[in-house]
Amino acid sequence: MPASAKLLAGVELGGTKCVCILGTGPDDVRAIERLPTALEREDTLRQIEGVLDRWRQQFGPMRALGIASFGPVDLRADSPTFGYITSTSKAGWRNTDVAQRLGKRLGLPVGFDTDVNGAALAEGRWGAGRGFDNFAYVTVGTGIGVGSIVRGRSIFGMNHTELGHIRVVRKPGDTFAGVCPYHGDCIEGLASGPAIEKRAGRPAAQLAPDDPAWDYVVHGLAQLLHTMVLTTAPQRIFLGGGVIGGQAHLFERIQQELKRSLNGYVEAPEVGLDIARFIVPPGLGAMSGPLGALAVAADAEHLAAGKAHTVAAAVSR
Ligand code: ADP
Ligand code: ZN
């Protein structure tokens, strides 16, 4: 196989399942395999290694590996625990090396980022974010996660950002304690699928569009978007995840509540007349997660090429 035909490998490590993917983009996925993210992390990591080893034998050496993981994760390239899942509330997965381990095994440039940053990067490369260099991907599902891209890169400082855990102004009269084990009523604690279920006493999927629980969800998510508009000024916000995807009525309500909350302060068409084009579903649908891992691999390859003298397998950012 000529070098130009080499493929990228990706691993989307989610809280419940893990997707391994091989290819070069949405139109060229050569292989995809899903495994449960077991409570016993060693089982899961060995299964991932098994898939990657098999693909290497079948398809030849890969160009780079990308890992897009649930977090929090350590993305600091100079940290001894770079590539680790750190303080997660998922039992059995605290302080787990993922990227160093897989990178050493494959001997490839390895990119490592959060699952939501990966999904955002994939939207930028192949999906609804094409043509923009500042945008964000929000998922409202089992948790709430936000991937923010600024100047074409995921935001990174002392570590990654965690907008799913910001505190928001409560809707007047709301006394629900929230479900986040760290913060109670942060936005994930107020508006994630489990939070809606706790508040309503029934799974979110069973609630009618006029159930009062949605008023709180709309209010909270509009507060999250308000903060995003004012901090990184995204050109587009992609809003997805199981809760949003299952409740078509939420989009317009969130758009209107965001406008109401900003109250005319930001004079941009995106948060005015054009709001229906500003807050939109992700373009890659259910594939934005797995393709996120491929996008992280593509960026890692690019970075490694620019740092040819870098010996370490773990080239991150
Ligand atoms: P994850 O966040 O684990 O990747 P999803 O994005 O699919 O998974 O989100 C799962 C969450 O979505 C669950 O909390 C579930 O209650 C919620 N959900 C699933 N279907 C619907 C629906 N039709 N309406 C509202 N919420 C839903
Ligand atoms: Zn929280």
Task: Give the tags.
317 residues; alpha/beta; Nucleotidyltransferase, domain 5; five-stranded mixed beta sheet; 10 helices; globular; disordered C terminus; binds adenosine-5'-diphosphate; binds zinc ion
Verbal overview:
This protein has 317 residues and is α/β, with parallel strands linked by helices. It folds into 2 domains: 108 residues, ATPase, nucleotide binding domain (Nucleotidyltransferase, domain 5, 2-Layer Sandwich); 155 residues, ATPase, nucleotide binding domain (Nucleotidyltransferase, domain 5, 2-Layer Sandwich), CATH 3.30.420.40. 35% of the residues lie in helices and 21% in strands. The chain is built from 10 helices and 12 strands. The chain has a 5-stranded mixed β-sheet with strand order 3-2-1-4-7, with helices on both faces. Strands 10-9-8-11-12 form a 5-stranded mixed β-sheet. A hairpin with a 3-residue loop joins β8 and β9. α3 packs across α10 and α6 crosses α8. The longest helix has 19 residues. It starts with 6 loop residues before the first strand and ends in an 11-residue tail after the last helix. Zinc ion (ZN) binds next to α4. Adenosine-5'-diphosphate binds next to α5 and α7.
